[in-house]
## 1
Amino acid sequence: MSVVVYAPASTANVSVGFDSLGAALSPIDGQLLGDRVLVEAASGDDVIIENVGPYAHKLPADPKQNILYDCYHYFVKQYAEHHSKVLGCVKMTLEKNLPIGSGLGSSACSVVAALEGLNAYLDSPFNKEQMLIMMGELEGQISGSVHYDNVAPCYLGGMQLMLQEAGVTSQAIPHFEDWYWIVAYPGINISTAQARSILPAQYRRQDTLEFGRNLAGFVHASYSKQPELAAALLKDNIVAEPYRAKLIPGFDEVRSYAAQSGALASGISGSGPTVYIVTPVLEQAERTKAWLEQHFIQNEDGFCHVCKIDEQGTRVTGTSL
């Protein structure tokens, strides 16, 4: 028996919702922007791990340092505690399609694909809420703190608002289906820890009030289908982007180009260095992609995609890579 699970890339924060908002992304040309994991039966005393894909060479050579190793042993422990059953040995192959430290939820992709792969391999002994909690906890162990703004959209799809109250971790909010999200990764890496360390320890009261107003307004505009208002609120002049911008070469030029081209909004994806620009016009999206490829991408590791919000989230795609 074998199963392959695909987990899409995601943009966390979406500027206006620091640690509170995230969206799954899907290139309109059908390319994979996310990781795949193959889980299949094997024999032995421990999990067998293999890496393939364009960014496999960036992963640790030691299998015990691989994120899938932690996923397997974490899942085994949870499976034994909740179902009193033993998983047994499997082989897990990670097709790494996202660069590490890109701001597109790379670690979340691997965690979500691996854990959902193991769950699907066993005919889903855990429900979605249980899986989401497990994914957040494990990804938090890797990144240093538990944040669901990559894990939730990657797993559930759509645009997700983090709640973490009354037994509800995350819920989808409406999004504008005609918006194109152009995401560009320049080819350099920024660690989440580095991007968090640059932020202030405290914010002024008036800034926190503005942050809350903008996020609430964006959610309201999304529900009431007011794209102009939503786009006007899709910004971060307070919490993260003013500080993280200095970590991203060419970010100011990207913002300037977006404004001059008439784009709806632009910002940093997650902790960066990936940036995004939003437009409702496909022709403009293609022009923006060409500009970013020429002026923002720095090396052969970089890329740019025109995306829509991925509605499906993580899914089983077959039995072989």
Note: The longest helix spans residues 205-223.
## 2
Amino acid sequence: MATSSAVFKSREDHRKQLELEEARKAGLAPAEVDEDGKEINPHIPQFMSSAPWYLNAERPGLKHQRKWKSDPNYTKSWYDRGAKIFQAENYRKGACENCGAMTHDAKSCIERPRKKRAKWTNMHIAPDEKIETFELDYDGKRDRWNGYDASTYARVVERYEATDEARRKYLKEQQLKKLEEKNSKIEGEGGEVSDEGDALKLVESKQMELSKVERRVRTTGGGSTGSVRNLRIREDIAKYLFNLDCNSAYYDPKSRSMREDPLPDADP
């Protein structure tokens, strides 16, 4: 595509232009300025900073790359879901024969087909829906989350929390039931019964075992896989985090090892 800056240059002018571009990239020369007085990044290629010839741009810039046409009629609002405007008491001419609403016909009615329609019974007339039309822009038409209410996700969180609480309660009841059965067997054999505190400690230890963090490991020979416990705990701190001084011992990330202090006798 021809650009406005496509004018004939001699070999000497072309060489000077290349030298100036290199100096600008190296920071030795000031950056080029566009029509609005803003500096142009010297690393931007010429085919982006040069405007097409039909825009009649006198100087290079990025103004032609920005969105210059804006329509004020575009909106980001969304439909008022479930809103009703009016509910009649009697059937009106031209309304839906099934439910009696004036905003749609019987063919597009989403209510269950009645055995006796509202047109004939003149009862239980459905309210009229709120009809809205929006002129959305390009992004608004393709936004899958447009009109989504984020506060409704709190119900999902509450449901999952209730499920987890019920699961923990069920596991605790199962553990207590097993302990009661074990104690009853010990009583039948004439042994001593452990107190309630020991039983609760055992339940807590069982729950801790259920919450162990495990990870899958693959054998080198390509055979069966297994799971091992994650032996690292939160209190473990990597060696390179004890001393964050840049001039101290060097940590090699490739070998995951610490180099020894090259000057052990020097003053730290």
Note: The mean pLDDT is 79.
